[in-house]
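Lab notebook, bench 4. We co-purified these components, and the gel suggests they stay together. Before we commit to crystallization screens, I want a quick structural picture of the whole thing.
Request: model the full complex, all chains together.
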Amino acid sequence: MKQILTLTVVVWLEMMRRKDLYVLMILMATLLAGLLSFDVFGLAGVTGYVKDMGLLAVWLLAWILAINTSVRQLPQEEQRGTLFPLLAKPVSRLTLILGKWLGAWSVTGFALACLYLTLCLGIFLKGGRFDAMTLLQAVILHGAALGLVCALGIALSTRMNRDAATVTTYVVTAAAFILLPRVPSLLLGASGMMNTSLYTLYYLFPHFELFDLRRRLVHDWGCAPGSTVAGILVYAVLMIMTLLLLAWLGYRKRHFSRGDIL
Amino acid sequence: MGMIPAIDIQDLSVSFPGRTGIVQALQNLTLTVAPGTVYGFLGPNGAGKTTTLQVLLGFQEATSGTARLFGCPITQSIARDKIGYMSENPDTYPFLTGRELLTMAGRLFNLPSPVIRKRSTQLLEETGLSAAADQRIAVYSRGMRQRICMAQALINDPELLILDEPTGGLDPLGRRDIRALIAARKAAGKTIFFSSHELSEVELACDRIAILSKGRLIAEGPVSTLVPPGESLERFFIKAVTA
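Here is the predicted assembly.
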């Protein structure tokens, strides 16, 4: 555990010193300031659109951060040459993967908390508010979704180079988020192989839509049932474990060479 | 019962696909390094030195044969508990400070915090980096980076130090500093296994040498026995690899 936490701390130090997080926060604040300066239909008290757009911005920014942070972790170690002194220590490849994932996820989770805090502050300044319990559920599920995105990014980066892994993670997560919820309606008209393929895809891909409580927050629908939230969290844990296992399987026998291999 | 060798390589072969077919990087290499020995691993470019080091450190798998570090198969990460490694290029995290790098290295060896603090301070002094300990490595010169990499290789007080071209690309002052660090480890009875093209350095520091050419071991033994009287190691080396 000490080794995993050490690797996590290195990810944190890099993120803090690269200043990516500050840029993200400035972007969010600017976006929010823009949203808050509008009065829809001349009604200063309307906050629904700020909530809607603000939450969309939080989802987009956190998604970008999670992918870019997770995907670069392992390839960067190799390109920078730091992987070699690292693997020359009694650090197993599984430890390395877990440390990198935990680092990427915790940094993204921290950024997520800051983004929600900024949004809540903005909404409060506009005279609105979120239901506290629903917000808590939304943040927890959003954090779990980001853990899943980070695990996917890490898993793909063990099989592909950094650029390919980045693009693939963006495509897979976007497709899973946008297209997957539409698959059941497509299944109605499908038969035979098409039906089987669509079903396989449906169950194989991560269901990010499960983690999205934005509509509950915007329309004040109240909390989701606790058992449902718990079920989604169990699903997230299982998916993350599967992806990290796949990452380890792709990484454990991989050969690394420094420049001239001979 | 004999002493467990620091390095025990038996019949090791490594091949991999290259541009023009299968490349045989190492062929049936058998080598034993006794504890406390300073061992020079020599060979022209492409001889298989780096491949051997990569197999020993677990970066690459052998096609056949076995390798053990202090009796432990190299496939187990615990085998690397007693070793320190420094590569030819001083690649490290530019965003960390020298002290943070040493702390990180110590934690990866599962050393207790007071030990890490004590050893870090000691190594920073020994490498002449105390004044720059809290500066980011990004601002270090190449020589300073080489020294901080050497310090992180020594954080666990390793029984076996594996060095790949430790003085490559360094100015005379940098070389002197690294040489002094190696000499101190030698005096402390540690095993040092290093590959180098600096034959005069090897001649001075090593108890034994091995010469590799085209993936095969062509000479092995104490420098005094291998090199005929009146001949330099450089002359012997050139004769051996061109024969």
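The beta strands of chain B are 7-18, 21-33, 38-42, 64-69, 72-73, 83-86, 160-164, 191-195, 208-213, 216-222. Worth comparing against the SEC data before the next meeting. The first strand of chain B starts at residue 7 and ends at 18.
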